[in-house]
Amino acid sequence: MNNHSQVLSARWIIPVTGNPINGGWVRIQGGRVVEMGSKPAPCHAQSLGDVAIFPGLVNAHTHLEFSDCQRPIGESGISLPEWIGKVISTRQSSDETSREQAIGIGIGELVKTGTCLAGEITTPPCEYPGNESGLDLVPFAEVLGLSAERGSQRLELARSNLRRYPQGGVSPHAPYSTSRETLGACFELARKHHRPIAMHVAESPAERELLRTGTGPFADALQSLGVWEIEQFPWPESPFLKLIEQLASTPRSLLVHGNDLNESEIRLLAEYPHITVVYCPRTHHFFRYDSHPVDQLLSSGVRVALGTDSRASNPDLNLWNEVQFLLNHRSDLDPLSVFRMATWSGSEALGRTDIGCIRPGCIAKFGMVRSDASSLEDLFGDCAMNGYEPLWQFAA
Ligand SMILES: [Zn+2]
How confident is the model at residue 89 (pLDDT cuts 50, 70, 90)? Predict the structure, then answer.
């Protein structure tokens, strides 16, 4: 650890938890930010020149066990039930060793592209490397099963994962794949051990159809997979309002996707600041869903973080590519909100206050984007075009 103070200056600093600073500087000591300001920079500052310094990126949702996929599974526009059938057949040949190899590949990709913290959905048993890679992971043990037997097996594995990873959480997979009894047991487990929950919710209109009527493409897919349980569907009225209340009963939760959330569900979410919606822009685009309600979520005051989901539905795990996708395709969003979703909101969702922002006390893990812009508008244009380069040497 370098205990000498270092000062960095750059054309722009984007603290995310504060306003962008044109001509800013940051003083670092012991791997942490101790002071920052606007020009003039102290005379001994090391100038990084025409760049914007950003916090480290936070990927709030991924499944690293699919990181050996060379390309997404299925063609763009595939229905979610059909895609899940293909994923299950791909996964049948995986074992603990192949999962761990894929996870190693995924960690390498995340680090190379500047992600410093990730919410990872894991299939226990699974051994993760230590944090010598520089990546902090919050592993959520996935639980699923419409039958009581499958659900209780996976719950037992999740319990052992919680004992192994003190920062870890529980991930009941989705309402179409997990019985209501097992979901209830997951929420109870999270409350009992003060752990976070991550769950795929309202991912596609077919999911809503299944929960409301017990029919549709998901019912057909579950039947053809041989896992249909007749007493599980439909759910009682207002299934997503009920699920949001259940998520709210846990210490902290990540509602993943939310592509199909409606107005009343968004209003209810806004009452619970300990729930974060995780939006995976390019995965959403892969399935060609209708426009994501991220604008309504943000304007209602719901925290939204970004995730890549896995390489089974996304060509890569580079979170900056999600940022650029939004800067280029969602001009209705304030670019500063997009930067926040890619950094600080993910940290808050994953229970961290010392990473994903630039302010005194935070870990000095940054990234830079080349820009000689003199206005914010031009800076946003450069961010939509230029890559993000990790700057982690100051945290060591
Ligand atoms: Zn996912």
Answer: confident
Rounded to two decimals, the pTM is: 0.97
In the reported structure, the alpha carbon of residue 391 is separated from the centroid of ligand 1 by a whole-number distance in angstroms of: 28
Cα 257 to ligand 1 centre (Å): 8
Give the list of residues 6+ apart from residue 307 with CB closer than 8 angstroms, or none: 59, 60, 61, 62, 119, 256, 278, 279, 280, 322, 346
Kindly give the distance from the C-alpha atom of residue 132 to the centroid of ligand 1, in angstroms, as a whole number: 25
Decide if 100 contacts 68 (C-beta within 8 A): no
- Report how far ligand 1's centroid is from the alpha carbon of 62 (Å): 6
Tell the CATH superfamily of the 6-55+358-395 domain. Urease, subunit C, domain 1 (2.30.40.10)
User: Cα(169) to centroid of ligand 1, in Å?
Assistant: 15
What's the CA-to-centroid distance between 198 and ligand 1, angstroms? 9
For 286-340, write each residue's pLDDT tens digit: 999 999 999 999 999 999 999 999 999 999 999 999 999 999 999 999 999 999 9
Long-range contacts of 290-296 (CB under 8 A, 24+ apart): 290/259, 292/258, 292/259, 293/258, 293/259, 293/261, 293/266, 294/330, 294/333, 295/330, 295/332, 295/333, 296/263, 296/266
User: Rounded to an integer, what distance in angstroms lies between the CA atom of residue 181 and that of residue 192?
Assistant: 16
Which residue ranges does the chain devote to CATH 2.30.40.10? Answer: 6-55+358-395
Pick the CATH number of 57-349 from 3.10.450.50, 3.20.20.140, 3.40.50.2000, 3.40.630.30: 3.20.20.140
What DSSP assignment string belongs to 361-389?
TSB--EEEEE---SSHHHHHHHHHHS--E
Q: Which residues surround ligand 1, an ion (CB under 5 A)?
A: 309
Q: Which residue ranges does the chain devote to CATH 3.20.20.140? A: 57-349
